[in-house]
Specification:
Blueprint lengths: L4 E3 L2 E6 L1 H7 L8 E3 L9 H4 L4 H9 L8 H11 L12 E4 L2 E5 L10 H4 L2 H11 L5 E7 L3 H10 L5 E8 L5 H8 L6 E7 L2 H13 L1 H9 L2 E4 L6 H20 L9 E6 L4 H12 L3 E8 L4 H8 L1 E3 L20 H8 L4 H14 L1 E3 L2 H4 L5 E5 L2 H15 L5 H17 L5 E5 L7 H7 L8 H12 L5 H6 L8 E4 L3 H9 L1
Parallel strand pairs: 5-15, 6-7, 6-9, 7-8, 8-16, 10-11, 10-15, 11-14
Antiparallel strand pairs: 1-2, 1-3, 4-5, 12-13
């Protein structure tokens, strides 16, 4: 049965999956959401006998209903191939009583690869399906990981160009190096004098600028997004939660139907929203544990029912979570508001005008499946050290936030439900802080530190790091926020 997608701010607007992927954002600024969440048509037992690509197909076919079986399987096989350094694509590692689903074995060693490896294939297939003649311009703001993963995905893809904005000084050395050495004549990377929220707000304004869209269209271009606001990013993320459950079932770690908890280090909310959707499809999840860093805007929301971005912005040792405007939370607000687009639009208007909004008790009662926690920078490093000292397992700072919050959750609730923790980046991506945490810090560049981490952990330096060790910097432009649109026009000439 076909599933159409509605805007979270105007329910009269319905589009197909391929149209939603091409548009990225609805015209009035809303996000696309399926008109209904499908349920599995395969049993958990059947899914447990499948590899990652097969599970991904079984999940994605239920949402992307205007893609043929041949089209979707081709997209999946092109995405999850030798770019990943692990045959399983997403292995599970057991440490200190929890299961870490390693989402960082792709070409940019972060979880964004899981969706951004397939998005270009979904998008170019969608363009053909909808007879799009314009060149697609991917416009993206990144807090560190989305940028490189999107650049790698769209590099040299015919009929596309990609512009990535990142906060200069607000990402790790490895993250920045991955982006500014990106090859491909269709790629452009620009640093901004501001933070991620500044970049994301400016990108959204460009999407909503009708005069700019008309000017681009007259020159044969049209915008689309690779940010997590794109439904083509969200749907592939659902698959790895389903796969992690199926894998635990296959290995006899859980019984069929047994509930698990899921912990996700969360900034923009898309990753944990995918787990929420999986739960609503029928995946047996007991608790969704939302782990924040010191910016903790989501932690405060789950505690109080008020979303308030009016606070000091902190640059932390988990920079991909340094976010005060969690764009994907809008989709959850839309759901718990009874899919009332007008009401949701009112909340988003308040957020834009005053920087905050408050949900009522009826809406808040629908969030019982969520638990919010946060970790300071010191607590994050302490947890990385403790896990390494006790098990030898090394995690990055974002996963460290999740691991600390999970530890505190167990202490607070005594809930011993078996738990999957989303390990969202390789420790080599944030090597300086990881070495500092485990007592191995020294004065050397980040590549020397990667070699040291490899030595003490017994894990090889990832291919993604080796590739940029001696790569030439190809993108060095830095602009003020007000000049971001000019940077896009200059790239498109």
């Amino acid at each position: 049965m076909e599933i159409l997608y509605k805007s979270t701010r105007d329910s009269s607007k319905k589009v197909t999956a391929s149209q939603a992927i091409l548009q990225g954002l609805s015209d009035e600024g809303g996000l696309f959401f399926p008109e209904r969440i499908p349920t599995f048509d395969k049993s958990l037992s059947e899914l447990s006998k499948m590899d990652y690509r097969e599970v991904a197909y079984e999940v994605m076919k239920l949402f992307l209903t205007d893609f043929t079986e041949e089209e979707l399987k081709k997209c999946i096989n092109n995405a999850y191939d030798s770019k990943f350094d692990c045959e399983e694509i997403v292995p599970l590692a057991e440490a200190d009583g929890a299961y870490y689903i390693e989402l960082f074995h792709g070409s940019t060693i972060a979880f964004k690869d899981m969706a951004l490896s397939i998005l270009p294939h979904l998008m170019t297939t969608a363009a053909k399906k909808n007879n799009v003649k314009n060149e697609i311009v991917i416009l993206t703001a990144t807090s560190g990981d989305t940028g490189k993963a999107a650049l790698a995905g769209f590099d040299s893809v015919p009929g596309t160009r990609i512009v990535v904005f990142y906060p200069k000084g607000g990402v790790s050395f490895i993250q920045e190096r991955q982006m500014v050495t990106q090859t491909g004549k269709n790629t452009c990377v620009v640093g901004i004098n501001g933070n991620f929220d500044d970049a994301q707000t400016a990108v959204k304004k460009m999407f909503a600028d009708e005069a700019l869209k008309d000017e681009l269209a007259s020159r044969g271009f049209q915008f689309s997004s690779a940010n997590s606001i794109n439904i083509g990013r969200l749907v592939p993320q659902i698959a790895y939660y389903v796969f992690s459950y199926a894998k635990l079932l296959a290995e006899g770690k859980i019984s069929d139907g047994e509930k698990i908890n899921v912990v996700v280090p969360t900034g923009n909310f898309g990753n944990i929203l995918a787990a929420y959707i999986a739960m609503n499809m029928g995946l047996p999840i007991n608790k969704l544990i939302c782990a924040s860093n010191e910016n903790k805007v989501l932690y405060d929301f789950f505690k109080t029912g008020t979303y308030d971005k009016n606070r000091d912005f902190s640059l932390t040792n988990s920079p991909s979570m340094d976010i005060l405007i969690s764009s994907n939370l809008e989709r959850l607000i839309y759901v718990i508001a009874g899919e009332d687009a007008k009401r949701n639009a009112s909340f988003m208007k308040d957020l834009s005008a005053t920087g905050k909004y408050t949900i009522d008790d009826a809406m808040k009662s629908k969030l019982d499946c969520f638990y919010g926690g946060y970790a300071t920078q010191e607590q994050t490093l302490e947890r990385i050290a403790k896990l390494y000292d006790e098990t030898g397992y090394v995690i990055d700072t974002h996963t460290g936030v999740a691991s600390y919050v999970y530890e505190q959750y167990v202490k607070e609730t005594n809930d011993m439900t078996k738990t999957v923790i989303a390990s969202t980046a390789s420790p080599f991506k944030f090597v300086g802080n990881v070495l500092k945490a485990i007592g191995q810090d020294f004065d050397g560049d980040d590549f020397a530190k990667c070699d040291k981490l490899s030595e003490v952990s017994g894990v090889s330096v990832p291919r993604a790091v080796e590739e940029i060790r001696n790569a030439k910097v190809l993108h060095d432009k830095v602009v003020d926020i007000d000049n971001m649109q000019d940077a896009v026009k200059a790239f498109l000439k």
